[in-house]
Specification:
By secondary structure, the chain is α/β, with parallel strands linked by helices. Helices cover 33% and strands 25% of the residues. The strands form two sheets. Strands 6, 7, 8, 9, 10, 11 and 12 form a seven-stranded parallel beta sheet that branches. β4 and β5 form a beta hairpin. The radius of gyration is 20 Å and the shape is elongated.
């Protein structure tokens, strides 16, 4: 058996997604797709070490034992749990056109969003792509090293998606007409204790006036990012970055 390379940087190790429980000493087999990626694309050999994640906050270091036609088999050497954040950050996102929504799913996953709620609004297009979005998020999860797979809801009409959010959240509505900046709003709110934060971001053209009124009625606080008009995907990533910065500093007691 190869020596466990404990001195190696985790960032340099290849990552793979699994759905089976990750337990020390357990032997698991990768899915056909992940096995092909490991042996044919990455050209890993017996004795190589990789990282496995289940998307639920667990990461395991595992050794490749063999690679047969039935798939790559690995043995788990060690397991670690992700640090639990004292907050959840979610996107209530108007569906963007074409590849822009795919790109947003990838980048939001890399940043560490906890959930994405794709919404069919007055100015967005319908189209169910939940399976594709989940695959994109899974690939982004492996690339970034995050351990939490974002929950991606099915695309729903605006009113239904809003109703499913329930009431246990603090909401922020991105609006270029708002007086309060998102950074200041987040700092003020997080001083009182964070929890579940939901950012509502419209598609190209934004939310309609009626949709904004319904969001405000549901408790979303209008905030702006800058004086510029940003594309939907740019606004979403900027808002996520600002929010994560504020929330993580709050968790560290820096605010």
């Amino acid at each position: 058996m190869a020596r466990d390379p404990g001195h190696e940087q985790r960032a340099a190790m290849k990552r793979f997604f699994v759905s089976t429980p990750l337990l020390p000493g357990a032997k698991i087999r990768l899915s056909p797709e992940e096995s092909k990626h490991a042996t044919k694309v990455m050209r890993l050999a017996v004795g190589d070490f990789v990282l496995l994640t289940d998307g639920r906050g667990i990461e395991a270091k595992a050794e490749l034992l063999n690679a047969s036609k039935d798939g790559a088999e690995l043995e788990i050497h060690s397991v670690r749990n992700a640090d639990q954040r004292p907050f959840r950050l979610e996107l209530f996102q108007g569906i963007l056109k074409g590849a822009r929504m795919d790109w947003l799913i990838e980048k939001a996953t890399e940043l560490g969003v906890d959930a994405i709620h794709p919404v069919v609004t007055q100015y967005s297009v319908a189209g169910e792509k939940a399976d594709r979005w989940s695959r994109l998020a899974q690939a982004a999860l492996k690339q970034s090293g995050n351990l939490i797979m974002p929950a991606i809801s099915e695309a729903l009409p605006f009113s239904e998606a809003l109703a499913r959010l329930e009431t246990n959240f603090q909401g922020f509505l991105l609006s270029p007409e708002a007086d309060l900046g998102l950074g200041m709003a987040m700092q003020t709110t997080t001083r009182g204790g964070a929890g579940r934060i939901v950012l509502a971001i419209g598609p190209e053209g934004g939310f309609s006036d009626q949709e904004e009124k319904l969001l405000e009625k549901s408790g979303f606080r209008p905030c702006r990012l800058s004086g510029q008009i940003l594309r939907g995907e740019t606004a979403a990533l900027a808002a996520l970055s600002i929010s994560l910065h504020a929330l993580e500093f709050r968790a560290q007691g820096a605010l």
